Amino acid sequence: PENALIFASRIYQEKLSNEMNEAAYYQMLSRMCKDGSITRIAKGIYCRPKVSKFGTIPPSENEIVRSFTENDQGVVVGYSLYNALKLTTQVPKRVSVYSSLIEEQHRQIGNVVLHQCNMKFDPEVCSVVRMLDVLQHYGEIQELEQTQFLKMCSEFSEQYSDSTANYVLTNLHYPKRTIAFLREVLEYHGRPHTLDRNLSSLSDYKIPSMEALYEAARKPN
Q1: Which of 175-201 are b and which e, b meaning 16 or more Cβ less than 10 Å from the residue's Cβ?
Q2: pLDDT tens, 170-203?
Q3: Which of 39, 69, 146, 155 is 20 to 30 Å from 125 by CA-CA measure?
């Protein structure tokens, strides 16, 4: 499809490695770029360009994000996530994405910043990643809407899966303080967990008290 991203290495390994030499394959891609059949978006990433009467239209930010997140292959984090969750009205200049589709640790395509993470991002995994990302940056989110944050904590706790959380924590390394904050959220809502295996009983993690957050939210402005 027009503007759908083409991952050259993956297509070669999955479809063409038994059909042609790798050097010849990349020479073919180079010729296709020169004649305009495809456009190079970034190293190893191409697309069949969308052409209008005004010229070639490059993939939009949303199309790029979708290519790296659809089919359980990634999740959006950072301010784009916070805005989508209505935790803040701040609009980000860049979109941060965890994805299993990139081969390097980090890559940037336009305003989309990609971070490698080889996991299957099914809905349960995405829910845990989103929650941990919010908790990790809780004190840094500008104009944080506390009522919406507490609602998110409550809804997340109702659907919490301990096995999924441990799967995420095995693959993505969050600060101990963030894990302790998640424990605080779950224990306030009476949800059992095994997060203590990731924490030290001797450490005093500087995290907000859920009771204090709810008390502050109940006070009139």
Answers
A1: eebbbbbbbbbbebeeeebebeebeee
A2: 999 999 999 999 999 999 999 999 999 999 888 8
A3: 146
* CA-only gyration radius of the chain, Å: 21
Q: What is the DSSP string of 76-115?
A: EETHHHHHHTTS-----SSEEEEESS-SSSEEEETTEEEE
CB atoms within 10 A of CB 37: 12
pLDDT at residue 21 in the model: 93
Tokens of 51: 């052409």
Measure the CA–CA gap between 13 and 165, rounded to whole angstroms: 32
Burial status of residue 148 (CB atoms within 10 A of its CB: 0-12, 13-18, 19 or more) = middle
Report how far residue 191's alpha carbon sits from residue 178's, in angstroms, rounded to the nearest whole number. 17
Distance between CA atoms of residues 100 and 72, nearest Å: 9
Pick out the chain residues at pLDDT < 50: none
